[in-house]
Phospho-N-acetylmuramoyl-pentapeptide-transferase (Leptotrichia hongkongensis), 362 residues
Amino acid sequence: MLYLLQELFINNWRVLRIFKSIMLRASVAFMIAFLFMLILGKPFIAWLKKKKYGDTAREEGPKSHFDKSGTPTMGGLLIIGAILFATAIAGNFTNKFIVFLFVITILFTTIGFYDDYLKLTKHKKGLSGKKKILGQLIITALTFGFVYKFGLVSKTIDFSIINPLIKNSYLYITPILFFIFVAFVIIGSSNAVNLTDGLDGLVSGPTIVVSITLLIITYLTGNVKYAKYLNLYYVPQAAEMIVYLASVIGALIGFLWYNFYPAQVFMGDTGSLTLGGILGIIVIFIKQELLLPIAGFIFIMEALSVMIQVWHFKTFGKRVFKMAPIHHHFELLGLPETKVTIRFWIVSIMTCLLTFVILKLR
């Protein structure tokens, strides 16, 4: 909206020219999303309580979580609302990336919301895994189609994977293999973030840190001079995505106001599935897919702990961890919930710093 206003009235009010600045609009988006959460958080939580949309602790989960039963969930609706509202105000909707992210966010939210709604009303397990994957595959197909139609460099179609550890190292693959790769990144990221959402404030912290990391890399990727200097894959118009990422960061910091221990609300699959999927899509757009496992190491660790636990139990009949995902393992070792959360945040900060070191050294 701000960008459109300056385009329409710049001749009459030259002061509006300031809204051409991506950095300014990103700052505005951050503040709008943060204040949106801060102001609407209390009434939204009260509404969730009135509707009795409370979370139910898993019977097989840690006993310390039983007293969390009844805590309002689906807080992700407010997070996504803040992101979309802030992006609508500060974003440039002549930019193809902003339009696509806006639409895809709504689609991901629909999947997560339906999953949460089923858990609260009909089926405790929510949406079946197959249906959830099907929805994510549809989003993958749309993302693949977006890349295919617009390309990522000029008007060319580029199906390549960049090795972040070696300078000018590209793996060129067929469109079919690239589709499989895109599906793996988006679905893997979405579900890994979802699995991390098991302690108060746990998933918000790393997602904020990773989003800040991607915001910086995205800005550099969309600037031809910086991209050339750092040997990044230059993607025209990509810098506009920092407005969206700033909205994500602002919304999550605002959400932490109510979600940190003891949590007044949980984001539910509505938030975690969407946020994870969006992170996956953005790294595909900026051609830094293999940096996500480094920056988002916490998410990968959580997902791998579940996979290892299931495989080892089915194969050998024994568990590797006391409980999976791995944050529950540390809880059962006797660590307080807040200590696990803060330590995971610290690890996330360190792995994101490592990401920048890798970009510079290569």
